[in-house]
Amino acid sequence: MKEVSPVHIHILHGDDSFSLNRAVKEMLHQAGDPAEVDMNTTRLDGKQVTFEEIQNAVNTLPFFGGARWVIVDAVLAKIDKSRTEKFMRLLEAMPPDNKLVLNIDDHQRWRKDAGNNWIQVWETLHDGHWLAQWAVAHDQAEMKAFPLPDEKAMDGWVTGEVKRQGGTIQPEAARELSRHVGNETSIASQEITKLLTYVNYARAVTAKDVIELVLDEGSADVFVMLDAMVEGRTREAQSLMHQLLEQDQPEVILGAISHRFRQLIQVREALDAREDLKVLVERKVIFNNQVGKYTQHARRFNMEKLESIYHKLLELDVQSKTSQLDLETTLEVFVVETSN
User: In terms of Cα–Cα distance, which of 31, 14, 2, 207 is closest to 103?
Assistant: First the structure.
């Protein structure tokens, strides 16, 4: 029987970037004194760093005898087949008191299994991927998936998030909020905070609260801005973006934009393949009430343009975590360039 090692390598993957990043923050929050943890935390962009830089970071001893935390975003960007063995040796040799968090942008897709049944599998970190197989075979590692909830599961996600924030919500209210925000988990979380503040945490949030607060005053502007941007209404999109940046965190807005273009890429793929767009509802890409509008939006871009925009957004996401990027200014420029 092999000796059990404490988990100190965390492999996080999925397309719910809000929940994934919150999981990272919670790990750091639970690690000890915030000032000491911050001093001992290094965040790296997997698209920019070298293998040697990752190696040096994970082997650096922590200050004051705590734990060294190394977070690597987009970790698989430069690890091709020729580097997998080297990277696995690095993981196996790193000091057990140091903590490594590997973040991987991943998405689910449908395929048929051996029994000809449709199942969902991860595009990147599937069961046959070398890193997934390594993690299963090593007790010092754990894998956690963060999939976006589908239309049926979003009500439950909202209810769970309300509970996590210390409040309660009526089922009809959870349904009304999820109908409005789709599976934009970052925006849903913000709206839940506003709703709980509105009811002063003293009673359950009702559907009337959602209609009065969210639909009239809250995140509707986010979706109006996104619609204006992809429909080419530049001045309106620019004005709404400026307003949003005054009231919301730029990281949340960036997440909403990235999610929308990820959806449009999959809609464009379906259109090009002449698929019935209802398959995207079944695959939890979009909700049923979004099919018509998203079809119109996707037709405004060719696939090359959509992929170029999406890759730029992914780069901005990584840069916002690993550098002093002025994300607010960058987003204002982005919305003008994209809507023109």
Answer: 14
